[in-house]
Amino acid sequence: MNSRKRMAELLEQGRFDDRPSRILNLLLIALISLNVVAIILESVAPIHDKYRLQFQFFDAFSVAVFTIEYLARVWSCIDLEEVGDSRPVIGRIKYMLSPIALVDLIAILPFYLSLYVAFDLRFLRVLRLLRLFKLTRYSPALGALLDVIQKESEALLAAFVVLLIMLVISAGGIHLLEHELQPETFGSIPSAMWWSMVTLTTVGYGDVIPVTPMGKLFGGLIGLIGIGMIALPAAIMASGFAENVRRRQHRFNLVAEEFLRDGILDESERWKLEDLRKELGLDSDEALELLHSMMRRARARDFSSCPHCGERLYSGAGAE
């Protein structure tokens, strides 16, 4: 095996029994988690002032590791099946433009930008929090979330467009009804949008309220409409998650059916199924139940009833 392919396996969590890959990925997960903790602690002024130098050294060390990781991923990506392009330049460009590679780039970009551009340190800390998204590479649940958002992007965009339209309409309506009595709050449509957003999302801070009878009636109607508007993206995401789980189970079933075609599940096939289970984020009990169900169906296919006496006859591999 060439070194580039081996590097791809190490970074992309290869086989379940690949101990170096597991150790490397656990170390990267620990480093990402420590970065998040450090960024949170840095926001506490006394701690930041006391350990400023230590925080700077740790950040520089983390960026160095993440930079090496990013370059190694770009170098070895053309050996990954997911990239689907083994051409050295085109394949690497495709990988670099993928969402997960962009997350890796964003994790290190603020540090290098700060060397040439003057950043507010508080703003820079917030940008560094984006390193948290690197955990999506190691968490099937977070990966599923990004997958659902990507696949349901058109439906979610449509829902947000409807919400934006309702935001403008409600801001315009409350402006007409309340601008005379509350010009400082509802004197313009842009200033009325704060009330519209709070009402449509059913948050209801109560800092800005209508005082006219028609304004109160209008506010109540907008609140009722807002319940449906906010529920729409949630329903889209729930439906997307259900479909995502169904696709993962279906993929597991297809591979298991292929392995069970000969009626035997050897040790190598068990390891491959375990790798696939972890990759798909399926619960071990859930995967075991799916496997047992398929084995029962496979056994049922291997037997048939005699058309004359009804006796069960074996018809699987090796039957006379």
Could you characterize what this model shows?
The chain is extended. α12 packs antiparallel against α13. It is mainly α and 320 residues long. The chain has two domains: 136 residues, Four Helix Bundle (Hemerythrin (Met), subunit A); 182 residues, Helix Hairpins (Orthogonal Bundle), CATH 1.10.287. It starts with a helix and ends in a 6-residue tail after the last strand. The C terminus is likely disordered. The chain has a two-stranded antiparallel ribbon.
Features:
single chain; mainly alpha; Four Helix Bundle (Hemerythrin (Met), subunit A); Helix Hairpins; 2 domains; two-stranded antiparallel sheet; 14 helices; disordered C terminus
Overview in brief:
The chain has helices at 3-11, 19-42, 45-50, 52-76, 88-96, 99-114, 121-128, 140-151, 153-178, 183-186, 189-200, 213-259, 267-280, 284-301; strands at residues 303-305, 312-314. With 320 residues, it is mainly α.
How are the elements arranged and paired?
Blueprint: H1 3-11, H2 19-42, H3 45-50, H4 52-76, H5 88-96, H6 99-114, H7 121-128, H8 140-151, H9 153-178, H10 183-186, H11 189-200, H12 213-259, H13 267-280, H14 284-301, E1 303-305, E2 312-314
Antiparallel strand pairs: 1-2
Helix pairs in contact: 1-4, 2-4, 4-6, 8-12, 9-11, 9-12, 12-13, 12-14
